[in-house]
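Q: Hi! First time doing this. I have a protein sequence and I read that you can turn it into a structure. Is that right? Here it is:
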Amino acid sequence: METQINLKHEFGRGITPERFMDGMETRTMALSGIPDTKARFADIYEGFAWPDDGASRSFFEEMRDKHDLCVFLLCTDWCPDVIWNVPVLLRVMEQAGIPVEVLPMEAHPDTMDCFLTDGGRAQPIAAFVQRDGEVLGRWGARPAYIQAVMDRFKRECPDKQAPAYRESLDRAYREIGELYNEGDGYQAAIVQELEALIRGFGARVWRAEDEK
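A: Yes, that's right. Below is the predicted 3D structure, encoded as structure tokens:
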């Protein structure tokens, strides 16, 4: 990040993942292939499985009680990428013992605007924060190979006033939904990207021996 962000003021202002899940509304997202958002979220959360080689699972397991991290998760329950990705994020954070506070996007607009994607409020955003509030990095809103579909759409359809803009956007959302629906490959991509992100933090995330 070019500008250092500190979110110490947000500690304690979020809600628990359990409260977020309990409060979700049930919606149908046809373009994304989600007939029941709350049920799909629960299915992904309960059915999450680690990549077969086990290396990433071991990496996150070994982090327990050794790190100085928490996550602020900026999201809502009406975005399809939240339905697909947040259950995976929560499972990985549970494995690593990283506490999560959910910051509903509409209630924390200033914080959300610290993590814009191409000038827009793409979600979910997982902000990795140290105990002093310093933000070390972020993940979101989609795995890179799925985000590439939206990046391509924005390159090819820059004019929002063009007659075919809405049709092209819907086509991009359908393609993104199809990629998510292909199986758990996108989940493995998230796990790999999160591991690479945390490894990139280096020694800053590890507690001193006398703090463990």
